[in-house]
Design goal:
The chain is of the alpha+beta class. The protein has 24 helices and eleven strands.
């Protein structure tokens, strides 16, 4: 008589549960691999020219390294009028049935309380697998019934396996022979205990960051030479991590419906020294409700027991940051870009603040209410925070809000106090805002680049290579277009928020400067179109002086914008004095350019009276540069008005 039969005959069936659960968990691994291989077969059948992945490592890990028929099943699959035909279909269906029975046994046949529908679903699927065995090939509908993960469209073998797995996790905690630092353990060796303690040490360090969210239960047992550690991340079907420790090697298997979340978790483990083997996600019509899976295995090869313990502690400390990650990302995308939202979540995890606290405190509602409470004219429901504050300021605000929510909830502070903090924080950001000056500074930088290029072109004169002049003209045109885009951006903002109207008015005047300088660059290039050969030295000298004076005035504009950025509402006298002095230099530069333009005209007439085309172009060049300085003066006065309004000083 077998030992299991003897124990059962004594009526002590509960003693079999650890072995049954261990066998069921192994069957779970095989079932998930079978279903993954079935999906891979469907992918190959749909696209026969694509390479078939090497499943050798996964098969060996599940103890199926001798099942040579499984790779053949994948490679042989093809579609025939909507029906997938493959070799060894009978073996696959028999294996699915056998492992389903093994996996369901401790849940359905141990006499312990479990949802009654699980046994009925198991029996129904065992019958369905027998029926499918009589068919030649699998219809697309049958494939979907076996593998889909969408409960809205009905039951599937995949969903049943997930539900049984959740029950097994609960049973594992109930039948554990010992609680080791919070982990449910049984049948482990003495040398395993420091490893389990290390894992739980990392888990306990960050587990409070899940707040009221369920999950993070850990079960540990030994399977021959391997220590098995399983952690239930939460209530989601696919969120169960399985780790194995064998010798000095740690392996972790992880799958996810969301590529972004998978890459987030992958990045955290890579920072700890893990290397990954990842299967590329694919989507096949009729499978998994059209959603792709990402499956990967992370490996860490330790060179000492301390390194192995550190790796286990590090992995455990990262698990909490996967909980509700995708929900937090979507909520943050109400205010910033997708990439920025992911960066915020990564930073919050790195600092060990997490994002669940922010979700618990209200998530996006916390931010929307703060926006309306602080300044209803500036913000409207649905506004992206980065469009109002600018990307950097919005990201800084949200990151600080993630920290505040997590810290205050751990201190058991009331939600109303967190909402007050969110409003006060946003009010401080608005008081310190300078995002409109970011736009002005960028526009001034493009204008400065055009002016610098014009000076270079005039100073080089006929000595410059034709290619160099062409390159300068092309760059000037590009910079002028970039400046135009900034003006269009400001106009779009002004359509939504009236406070941007002064910025638009200032940029329109500044854009006239950029347009005039780019036009001057074009006119100068015309002086070298054959048969013209440039300008006489006397004319070139006075135009160089005019261009240099214009450049100096634009450099003062750049300085004035930066000073204006920092002029506070208290009217710092040092900032104010520097700002006014800079504006005065711009006024003097405009007057000097008027005089230099007249001198240029005199020189042009004296040197080019016998060359009408060159005379006309040189005169136009001088006039266009003078026009740029006139527009620059108008821009300076507009900037002055903005500063006076900002500091609440009457003009």
């Amino acid at each position: 008589m077998r030992k299991e039969q003897a124990v059962a005959s004594l009526g002590q069936q509960s003693l079999l549960l650890p072995a049954w659960v261990k066998a069921a968990l192994a069957a779970n691994d095989r079932l998930k691999l079978y279903l993954t291989l079935l999906q891979s077969a469907a992918q190959h059948a749909a696209a026969p020219d694509t390479a078939v992945p090497d499943w050798g490592r996964e098969l060996a890990h599940a103890g199926l390294q001798d099942a040579a028929w499984l790779p053949e099943l994948v490679k042989s699959a093809y579609f025939d009028d909507g029906r997938m035909v493959m070799r060894h279909q009978d073996k696959l269906l028999a294996a699915l049935a056998a492992d389903l029975a093994t996996m369901a046994r401790p849940v359905c046949d141990s006499g312990r309380a479990s949802p009654p529908e699980l046994a009925a679903r198991r029996d129904s699927w065992l019958q369905r697998l027998r029926e499918l065995d009589t068919d030649e090939g699998l219809e697309r509908a049958a494939l979907a019934q076996l593998t889909h993960g969408d409960r809205k469209v009905g039951d599937s073998l995949h969903l049943l396996v997930m539900d049984l797995h959740q029950q097994l996790n609960a049973m594992a905690s109930e039948i554990a022979t010992e609680d080791l630092d919070g982990a449910h353990v049984w049948q482990i060796d003495k040398q395993d205990r420091p490893l389990v303690s290390a894992f739980m040490r990392g888990l306990h360090r960050t587990a409070p960051l899940k707040f009221s969210h369920p999950g993070l239960d850990t079960a540990v047992t030994r399977d021959g030479a391997r220590l098995l550690i399983q952690n239930d991340i939460g209530t989601n079907d696919v969120h169960v991590l399985v780790m194995t420790v064998e010798g000095m090697e740690l392996r972790l298997t992880y799958s996810d419906l969301h590529t972004g979340r998978f890459n987030f978790f992958r990045g955290m483990l890579e920072a700890l020294g893990f290397t990954w083997t990842v299967s590329e996600p694919r989507t096949v019509e009729g499978l998994n409700a059209g959603k792709p899976y990402v499956l990967g295995e992370a490996r860490f090869q330790a060179d000492s027991m301390q390194a192995l313990e550190n790796a286990l502690e590090g992995v455990a400390s990262r698990i909490v940051f996967v909980i509700d990650w995708n929900r937090a990302r979507k909520r943050l995308q109400n205010f910033v870009s997708k990439a920025q939202a992911q960066q915020l979540l990564a930073k919050a995890a790195q600092e060990e603040w997490g994002h669940v606290g922010w979700l618990e405190a209200g998530g996006e509602r916390l931010v929307f209410h703060a926006m309306q409470a602080v300044d209803g004219d500036a913000f409207r429901i649905g506004d992206r925070l980065d469009e109002i504050l600018g990307e950097a300021a919005a990201a800084e605000y949200l990151l600080e809000l993630l920290r505040i929510a997590s810290t205050m909830l751990r201190q058991q502070q009331p939600m109303a106090l967190i909402a007050d903090e969110a409003r006060m924080l946003l009010a401080r950001v608005l008081r310190q805002r300078s995002f409109e000056f970011d736009l002005l500074a960028e526009h001034a930088a493009y204008t400065h680049a055009i002016a610098l290029g014009l000076c270079e072109a005039i100073e080089s004169g006929a000595g410059a290579e034709a290619a160099a002049r062409t390159d300068l003209a092309a760059r000037a045109k590009y910079w002028e277009r970039q400046a135009d885009h900034l003006l269009m951006d400001a106009r779009q903002r002004a359509e939504r928020h009236g406070r941007w109207q002064p910025v638009v008015e200032l940029l329109e005047k500044s854009d006239d400067v950029a347009d005039a300088l780019e036009e001057a660059m074009f006119v100068h290039s015309m002086l070298f179109v054959a048969p013209l050969g440039g300008l006489p030295a006397a004319v070139n000298e006075v135009l160089t002086n005019l261009a240099d004076t214009t450049l100096a005035a634009i450099q003062d504009q750049v300085k004035a914008v930066e000073i204006a950025r920092h002029v506070s509402d208290r009217g710092d006298p040092i900032d104010s004095e520097q700002f006014l002095q800079t504006l005065w230099r711009m006024l003097r530069a405009e007057r000097m350019c008027d005089q230099l333009a007249r001198e240029a005209r005199v020189a042009i007439v004296g040197a080019l009276h016998a060359a009408p085309v060159s005379l006309q172009l040189a005169t136009e060049l001088a006039g266009t540069m003078e026009k740029a300085t006139d527009s620059l003066l108008a821009a300076g006065y507009a900037l002055r008005q903005m500063v006076l309004t900002k500091t609440e000083v009457a003009s």
